[in-house]
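Thread: "does anyone have the structure for this chain?"

Original post by V.I.:
We have the sequence but no experimental structure in hand. Need at least a predicted one for the grant figures.
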Amino acid sequence: MVDTSQQQIETFVQEWPSSSAPARDIFLLFLKQLQGLADSRLEFHARPGVSYSLRGVRQERTVRPLFVMVDVIDDEPRWLSVCFYGQAITDPEQRGDFVPGGLLGEDGHCFDIEGTDSSLVAYVQGRIVEAHAAAA
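Reply from O.Q.:
Generated one for you, C-alpha cells below.
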C-alpha cells in the first residue's frame, strides 16, 4: 500500500517555488528528522494559498497524538511556522511565541522561521525531540 501523505509531500516539494528555496531546505531537514522518530507517523494537510501542514503524530496515542505541526505559510517567499502544544515543550531561550488557542484550538507555542538562521533551526529541532518525548 502506498502512503498517500508521502506522495503528497513529494509532489509538494517538487513543485516548491525556487524563490523560496531556503524555506524548502529547512522543511526537508524537519521532514527527515520527523521520519526518523520512532513510533511516529506523518500527516500532510494542504490548503493551497494559505498553508501546507506537516504533522508529526505519535501512533500509540489516542488523546492528543499530535506533537508538532510544521506549517509552510504560502506567502512570497514561503516561510515556516513550527508549533507545539504549550505544555509539551520548554523554551529556555524564549525564542518562540505563546499563541492562545493557536494549535488546533489549544494553547500553542510557535517558532516562525523566515530566514536561514541555523541556530534557530537547531533550537526548533531540539523542541521537536522534546515534544516527541512528551507525547510518549
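V.I.: this helps a lot. The chain has one domain: 4-134.
O.Q.: and The radius of gyration is 14 Å.
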